[in-house]
Specification:
five-stranded parallel sheet; 7 helices; globular
Amino acid sequence: MNKILVDTNVIIDLLASRKPFNRASERIFSLADLGEIELVASALSLVNCFYVLNDVMKIKSPRTILRKFKVLVKTKELNQKIIELALNDKNFKDFEDGIQYYTAIESNCSLILTRNGKDFKKSTLPVLNPKEFLAKVDLDK
């Protein structure tokens, strides 16, 4: 089974029904719900999602939404090793992207799923956006 790190932006697309991106996210999280793929998310992603849903988008009941959502992903803790690796890697201008990358590495993920592929140019893992991933999954069947 593919183990995939899902970036915060893809999660928010789903949880906030952010059009036009939500359709691809819905299909991906449905695959996880069916047990066809395993999704991993950094604990930081859940914190960031709560902030965006609550403070930026003013969505009601973000805790309830996240409580229901978290059954679809395995949450990887943010630890000292991941923080140190992200802080010391000059390939990532954005610290949060480094956190995502090293969460994927430490979780033995086979790829990173994000809409911001340009932020992961130096990744040793394949990086796909949701539409690219879904096209690849359809081709593999």
